[in-house]
Amino acid sequence: MLGNTRNLKYDIVVIGGGHNGLVAAAYLAKAGKRVCVLERRHVLGGCATTEELWPGYKVSVAAYVISLFLPEIIRDLRLPQYGLEILPRNPSSFTPLPDGRSLTLGADMTMCQREISKFSAADAAAYPNYNATLERVAAVLEPILAQIAPDPLPLPQDWRKIGLQKKLGDAKRMWDFYQSIASLGSDIPDAVELLSGAARPILERWFESEVLRATLATDAVIGAFASISSPGTAYVLLHHVMGEAGGERGIWGFVRGGMGGLADALEKACHDLRVDVCRESPVKRILVDHHETGARATGVILEDGTQIDARVVASSVDAHLTFERMLGPHDLPDYFREAVGKIDYASASAKVNLALSEPPNFTALPSEGVAAHHHGTMHVSPTLDYLERAYDDAKYGRPSEEPILEMTMPTSVDNTIAPEGHHILSMFVQYAPYKLRSGNWDDIKESFGDRCVETLAKYAPNVPDAILHRQVLSPLDLERTFGITGGNIMQGAMNFNQLFMFRPVAGWADHRTPVRGLYLCGAASHPGGGVMGTCGRNAAQVILADS
Fold it and tell me: Are 414 and 257 in contact (CB under 8 A)?
């Protein structure tokens, strides 16, 4: 609805009120631009949203933890002053086993080694070195993720005319990247493997205990339709030692009030910068004028027919929606449309949100009420083969018979989101393939939810009787609800061929598009998915440089 707008003409219109769209809008408005954000839904935040699904229960419906969000964005936009509070989790990880044992990991290395030594003294000794290696590589990559991606490939001249200034800037970024990699020295082979290799062989070389391997491997496939043996899965391991939004490097935290607390703080920052934020305002089409000099974006038309004119349109929705749904075939060069049509959106993630009358009581570590191991991520993924079998089912179009569960209970540290004594349990589930061999998700999602609960009950038998409310989101539901093609939470798979200079497509990694005045500012652009804010901030820098 457009009741919040002051006019129907702006310098910049941002499509999508997810965290990246709001970040871009805030930076642009801070630079003096007149900005309007158009959000399709009634709630802001995109996948990082909080909704009161049941009276008194404020649920982080999709995204559930934060670490990668850039500290400089938090500082630049003064988000703590607008209510953003990130609650660290300690310990950070808990994996119960069917035989009654368990593994707990956290920031305290001495505690981690003590826990790991229950399974392997050699692994306990190796674990600090493993973490140190990942942190050295991550420290080199983090600045690259925070930068605008270059376009260094020698693509055909008629695809894109790149001026001397951009060529020099791209060359400098590639040289900086080269020097950064060079600084790794003897860690370069490890860095190459972490960037392009598979998680399983790396973890099997480092460790001998199955529970430690499996606990770490789970992080490599969350959100991806890939096996732990698939090339590219090792890269995600690095994400889990990156980011400082949780207070320290690699510490993932909860947002007080739910993940939507980030969007709330960003909206308040935007309000003070005089950004018009309009909910329930779905965009139907991006307006394009065609001249001899090429196509240029001139605004948008909403589903209700309202036209909003703008010199610049910044889209935070994915490439399929932006280029194949909101533009016509004649608006883009054929090669670009063909490249966009090849983007992989394969997805196999589901989400189950539970309201509980009591916390899970794990047979591996019995407790009364909230215990320390409820603070972190609770894994049901006891062995590497368990993870492989879960993928094997999905590979053939079947939801995993024994799914991987990555669970968090934000009420363990946040008393503002549920009635006193009650809890919210978030279950992120692998694998639930978007494309099924037979049947459809609308018919089977509740039975799959039952399967997830039954799987958890093998480790925490009290859970089924403690469930007060339940929400099951299939990948089809994720697509419908959040506007993410294929239910892919990253706005496109994070494969090597869809990262850095190849995101969204080769030759257009710098947030610009073949339509002048149209930019990408969401996870479809570098550095991709995750609650980072980098895509929005970097896109704003490019837009301002072009203004």
Answer: yes
In this structure, what are the phi and psi dihedrals at residue 373, rounded to the nearest 5 degrees?
-70, -10
DSSP string computed for 125-172? HHHHHHHHHHHHHHHHHHHHHTSPPP--S---TTT----HHHHHHHHH
Close Cβ partners of 250 (under 8 Å, ≥ 6 residues apart):
67, 107, 135, 240, 241, 242, 243
Task: Report the candidate in 546, 32, 7, 18 with the shortest Cα–Cα distance to residue 297.
Answer: 546
- Checking if the pLDDT of 265 tops 90, the result is yes
d(CA 220, CA 240): 9
Assess whether pLDDT exceeds 50 at residue 31. yes
What does pTM read for this prediction?
Answer: 0.94
DSSP three-state, residue 518: strand
User: Which runs of consecutive H residues, i.e. helices, occur in 284-383?
Assistant: 319, 334-341
CA distance linking residue 248 with residue 47, whole number of Å = 24
Taking Cα atoms as reference points, which of 9, 2, 1 lies closest to residue 310? Answer: 9
Q: Report helix angle 164-182 to 121-145, nearest 10.
A: 160
Q: C-alpha angle with apex 498: 217 to 20, nearest 5 degrees?
A: 90
Q: Is the bond preceding residue 152 a cis peptide, omega within 30 degrees?
A: no
Q: Is 318 helix (H, G, I), strand (E, B) or coil?
A: coil
Nearest residue to 222 (alpha-carbon basis) of 42, 426, 421: 426
Residues 264, 257 contacting (CB under 8 angstroms): yes
- CA-to-CA dists, residue 98 to 102, 462, 477, angstroms: 9, 15, 32
The closest alpha carbon to 5, from 42, 35, 45, belongs to 35
Ramachandran sector of residue 65 (left: φ over 0; alpha: ψ -120 to 50; beta: rest): beta
Task: Output the six-digit token pair for 43.
Answer: 């709630």
Residue with tokens 């804010």: 533
CA–CA distance, 22 with 273 (Å, rounded to integer): 11
Phi, then psi, of 498 in degrees rounded to 5 = -130, 30
**H-helix or E-strand spanning residue 536:** helix 534-546
Q: How far apart are CA 417 and CA 87, in angstroms?
A: 13
159 to each of 78, 154, 314, how far by Cα in Å?
Answer: 41, 10, 21
Beta strands 276-278 and 102-105, pairing class? unpaired
Q: Which among 241, 243, 213 has a CA at the least distance from the CA of 131?
A: 241
Q: 483-501, pLDDT tens digit by residue?
A: 999 999 999 988 888 989 9
Q: Which residue is it, tokens 């936009």?
A: 77
**CB count, 10 Å around CB of 121?**
12
Confidence check: pLDDT of 3 > 70 = no
**Which amino acid makes up residue 14?**
V
CB 226 within 8 A of CB 232: yes
